[in-house]
Amino acid sequence: MENQKILEILKTINYPGFSRDIVSFGIIKEINFNEGKVLVTVDVKTDNKSQIKELHNSIKNTLENNKDIDEVKIQILNSNIKDDSKETGNIKKIKKIIAVASAKGGVGKSTVSINLAASLSKNHKVGILDLDIYGPSLPMITGVDFQPKVNEDGKIYPIEKYNMKLMSFGFLSGNNSPAIWRGPMVARMTSQFFDDVLWGDLDYLILDLPPGTGDIQLTLVQKIALTGAIIVTTPQDLAIIDVQKGAEMFKKVNTPVLGIVENMTEFICPDTQKSYKIFKGNGAKILSKELNVPILAEIPIYPVLSESADKGTPFVLSNEESKISHQFNQINTFLDKL
Ligand SMILES: Nc1ncnc2c1ncn2[C@@H]1O[C@H](COP(=O)(O)OP(=O)(O)OP(=O)(O)O)[C@@H](O)[C@H]1O
Ligand SMILES: [Mg+2]
Fold first, then answer.
1. In whole angstroms, what is the distance from residue 260 CA to residue 102 CA?
2. Which 3 state secondary structure label does DSSP give 133?
3. Mean pLDDT of the region 118-134
């Protein structure tokens, strides 16, 4: 039987969901016929499993109906879909990796990270990785309480929400179960995170670091080539010494500190929109001078910012015109120029 004849038969099969036949679609790559056995090689160009199955079955059934054909084998190729599972060095496809760090806990790293990521996601492909193993925040502040999918090679697909790719230790360790892992385990888990999450192409990956400037943080920043770090601080002068420690740590691993975000600069009363300076210090300005880096943003204390986090919805996505959102846009403009 000639290949041309087999091609004629294949022309009677429509591509699933289309009124066009599979031959004119250009997906038939090769036909091999030998003593009643036919091998058809198809380049499906889709990863839609049900479509592929339908295609497979209709080719098989149609050819098997021909009296000259005893056996049908179909080889499915997929030239359009990258096989992420075979990829190593996945992180290399990320253009800019920005760490959000602070020496002290509770100054607003996670709040800054998610809103920065959400703000960037309006024009960029963005991922956010919450590396706080002991107190992951991302599950709560994005309202995600399910586990990510893992492929057969153990690689993890980030969760997609709000047009961002999200990953957190909290997604893996179950709901609110406090992690009790020790340092080396954390370091191992962390390296694995960098290697095993299938981020794909990203313009930005924002890393929400755990507080502190110790070994864990050092391992984290050593493991990958960061574009740079943003240090979050509050106005109290007391925080300055800690921040200096953080800056020194980044220096050790040749990571530039890009700038400072001062959080809780003032309190904005939601009723009157009047501003009150609560903390008297001038920390960010002093640091900015000392480290010779800019203050990228000054974020006021604003109850709605915190409420949005509790509800799992990034503030900047639903309050685009607010002063706070403009502050985040300002950071974006800065990062885009890097
Ligand atoms: N500018 C702000 N206005 C109002 N609430 C804020 C502001 N910044 C942070 N918060 C609230 O303060 C708390 C601590 O913030 P966040 O979790 O972002 O800090 P963190 O530095 O990530 O903490 P940790 O060190 O524990 O990781 C959260 O409840 C958050 O919603
Ligand atoms: Mg945090």
1. 10
2. coil
3. 92
So what CATH class is 87-336? Answer: alpha beta
pLDDT of residue 178 exceeding 70: no
270 touches ligand 1 (CB under 6 Å): no
The response to whether residue 305 sits with its C-beta less than 6 Å from ligand 1 reads yes
Report how far ligand 1's centroid is from the alpha carbon of 106 (Å).
5
Q: Domain limits of the chain?
A: 3-77, 87-336
Q: What is the mean pLDDT of residues 265-287?
A: 82
The stretches of the chain forming alpha helices (DSSP H) are: 3-10, 49-64, 109-120, 138-142, 169-172, 183-196, 215-223, 240-252, 283-291, 303-311, 315-318, 323-336
Buried b (16+ CB within 10 A) or exposed e, 247-270: bebbeebebebbbbbbbbbbbbee
Rounded to whole angstroms, the Cα distance separating 111 from 104 reads: 14
What are 35's two structure tokens?
Answer: 């003593």
Nearest-CA residue for ligand 1 atom 12 is 108
d(CA 191, CA 187): 6
CA of 74 to the centre of ligand 2 (A): 51
Question: Which residue in this structure is represented by tokens 């925080």?
Answer: 239
When mean pLDDT is compared across 30-39, 74-83, 104-113, 292-301, the lowest value belongs to: 74-83
Q: How many other C-beta atoms can be found within 10 angstroms of the C-beta atom of residue 165? A: 24
**Three-class DSSP category at 276:** strand
- Kindly give the distance from the C-alpha atom of residue 138 to the centroid of ligand 2, in angstroms, as a whole number: 8
Q: Does domain 3-77 have CATH number 3.40.190.10?
A: no
